[in-house]
Amino acid sequence: MKNLIAIICLLSIFSCKKAQENINTNIRSKFSINEIMEKNKSNHGEVTDYLIFTKDPSSKLQINTEILNYIQKNTTAQQNQYTIALEKYVTREIIKFYDEKSSPWTEEELIKIIAFASNTTDPLHKKFWKEAPDNWHNGMWGNILSFCYLVYPNTLWINFQNQMKKENYYNLPHIKEMISYATEFDKFGPP
Questions:
Q1: How far apart, in whole angstroms, are the C-alpha atoms of residue 160 and residue 110?
Q2: Rounded to an integer, what distance in angstroms lies between the CA atom of residue 42 and that of residue 98?
Q3: Which residue in 52, 16, 14 sits closest to 33, CA to CA?
Q4: Separation between Cα atoms, residue 24 and residue 171, nearest integer Å
Q5: Which of 90-95's residues contact partners 24+ apart within 8 Å by CB, and which partners?
Q6: How many CA within 13 A on the CB side of residue 13?
């Protein structure tokens, strides 16, 4: 299975659309998303870093909502490896874009990534962090949108809110509530 993930990652990185479509079709016919995700819990960073947000051959952002749905449905207070890995991935991408100026994403793409990721992870963080704080502060002191709000209040936060309104919040069910929740954070963490 580890080789399977490596192949998917390589195809995702090199954007070999035909081969990737064939492999994705073969994988889906042989394995359910649940099987793939359960068998790769020890490689959660590989999944979140290489399989959720990719670019197609014409460099258009692709979002694997099937994996995001899996994360949302299968995270618990104790089992949150994929959620934390996704939060860390998005935070790294934000830093790459705003501080290091070395992101593969445009600002519009990055904001869309933040929206889809935070729609998945931030409600989970809100629901579970008090139940198991040590599991939820594993390298993260808050959630994705609170990071945007506290670290980049005059750039990313403003641009994020403007794009959400322009794009009708991408019709994501939790994003409006999570934007409001993010403003309750302070430098010490969650409310």
A1: 9
A2: 30
A3: 52
A4: 26
A5: 90/114, 90/117, 90/118, 90/144, 91/140, 91/144, 91/147, 94/147, 94/148, 94/151, 94/152, 94/156
A6: 10
Q: In the numeric block, which tokens belong to residue 24? A: 């994705």
- What tokens does 31 get? 């394995």
- Contact in structure between 85 and 139 (CB atoms under 8 Å): no
DSSP secondary structure string, 50-107?
HTSEEE-TT--EEE-HHHHHHHHHH--SS--HHHHHHHHHHHHHHHIIIII---SS-H
- The whole-number pLDDT of residue 31 equals 74
Q: How far is CA 47 from the centre of its chain?
A: 10
| More confident of the two residues 63 and 18 | 63
Q: What pTM did the predictor assign?
A: 0.82
Average pLDDT of the segment spanning 35-54: 87
The pLDDT confidence band at residue 191, using thresholds 50, 70 and 90, is low
